[in-house]
Design goal:
Elements (H helix, E strand, L loop, with lengths): L1 H8 L7 H7 L5 E9 L4 E8 L4 E9 L19 E2 L6 E3 L5 E3 L17 E7 L5 H21 L20 E4 L10 H4 L2 E2 L6 E5 L6 E9 L4 H4 L7 E12 H8 L5 H5 L8 E2 L3 E8 L2 E9 L15 E3 L2 H26 L2 E4 L17 E3 L9 E2 L1
Antiparallel strand pairs: 1-2, 2-3, 3-7, 4-5, 5-6, 6-7, 8-10, 9-19, 10-11, 11-12, 12-15, 13-14, 14-15, 14-17, 16-18
């Protein structure tokens, strides 16, 4: 009786018993918490077991000009790991966390003048099976609808997926086969020599809030598996092309975080060109949409303030070459996406060496053994 009452009280009473039965552990549900701050634009709830450990946790933010955005990235810097079915506005991140970003027509525009969105994160403890992933997705959609109602967003609720609908990790195809697709830029632009015969993961959908095209080198000696790639024949990630809508999605889509730490540039709504990442922006249905290019995590390691053993600084000429390549990727990717989506007001980053260089980007280092190879690009 107590468990039934706890569940009825948790998260606005919108948690489905059937889906909870799928994701629950052997322990019973014993605790629940909920908080809502309309002025700050935040909502949280969680349902816990007898050990007071959260089984279901929901965190939501409303993006508006006077709301401080405190977006927990939770390792989502290389999102999306999977797209959501049925044109749901969101992605599945690491540890199968579901991020939904429905529009909120009843709210004010955000600081960029975009229509407001919610960011609703749903996390379920210890997901292992496809059935648990599907149940988590259904719980997440119900939570997003409940939060949207609480914030008085108005509009139509999101459609709850069926029991057999799962997030889609994307399609792996040979680089040459991306020509004419949403990842066409990786087929037509110059790419690192290591990726000329590589594989592209296409995790991008028309009108999606976040999408990504990733170029991988061929796997050699199982190095891809060692780097965390579970797709057979895929090596290290070389180039990442990402698109996102709105600045909440931008906080999830920008490679690595916080943004200023990486680039010295903290506004993803304005074009940017650096030697590790670049992006262009356009207007898509009244919403700021960005198109970014960056080096893969293992191919262009994290920036370091100090030189360390086995690493060296890139020369100014190498950084300039990197900027030129990234601008080429961004230009090809953005122009193709704008044409496909019918967007307007495309603004590309200035060519390297022209205009105001903007904030200084941190200097990058990389392994000596590949210092020359990383900038060797071929068509």
């Amino acid at each position: 009786m107590k468990e039934w009452w706890v569940v009825r009280q948790a998260c606005g009473g919108e948690l489905s018993w059937d889906d909870l039965d799928t994701v629950r552990t052997e322990e019973s549900f014993e605790t629940q918490r909920e908080s809502f701050d309309e002025e700050e634009g935040t909502y949280q709830c969680w349902l816990g077991n007898e050990e007071n450990r959260a089984v279901v946790r929901v965190t939501a933010y409303r993006a508006e000009a006077d709301v401080p955005i405190r977006v927990p990235l939770y390792g989502l810097a290389y999102a999306p790991l999977a797209l959501l079915p049925g044109e749901l506005p969101g992605v599945e991140g690491r540890h199968h966390r579901v991020y939904l970003m429905p529009t909120c027509p009843g709210a004010r525009e955000d600081s960029a003048g975009d229509r407001s969105r919610l960011l609703v994160e749903t996390q379920v403890d210890s997901i292992e099976s496809d059935a648990e992933r599907a149940a988590t997705l259904r719980l997440a959609v119900r939570m997003a609808n409940m939060v949207a109602e609480k914030f008085e967003c108005g509009g139509e609720p999101l459609t709850v997926p069926s029991q057999d609908e799962l997030p889609d990790p994307g399609t792996y195809v040979a680089r040459a086969e991306t020509k004419g697709t949403a990842c066409d830029a990786l087929a037509t632009a110059r790419v690192p020599a290591e990726g000329r015969e590589g594989t592209v993961r296409m995790a991008i959908a028309e009108g999606g809030v976040i999408g990504r095209c990733t170029l991988f080198a061929p796997d050699e000696g199982g190095q891809g598996a060692a780097a965390g790639n579970d797709h057979r024949g895929v090596g290290e990630a070389l180039v990442e092309l990402t698109t996102w809508r709105g600045h909440l999605a931008g906080a999830l889509g920008v490679q690595q975080s916080p943004l200023r730490l990486l680039t010295g540039h903290d506004d993803p709504g304005e074009p940017y060109l650096g030697h590790s990442q670049a992006w262009a922006v356009a207007d898509c249905d009244g919403e700021t949409t960005a198109y970014a290019a960056g080096w893969g995590e293992s191919y262009f390691p994290e920036l370091e303030e100090e030189e360390s053993e086995g690493r060296k600084r890139l020369s100014e000429a190498e950084e300039q070459n990197a900027r030129e390549l990234l601008r080429e990727y961004v230009t090809a990717f953005a122009q193709d996406q704008v044409r496909r989506e019918g967007c307007t007001d495309l603004r590309l980053p200035e060519e390297p060496g022209s205009g105001d260089p903007g904030p200084e980007e941190p200097r990058a280092g990389e392994p000596v053994k590949s210092a020359a190879g990383f900038l060797r690009a071929e068509p």
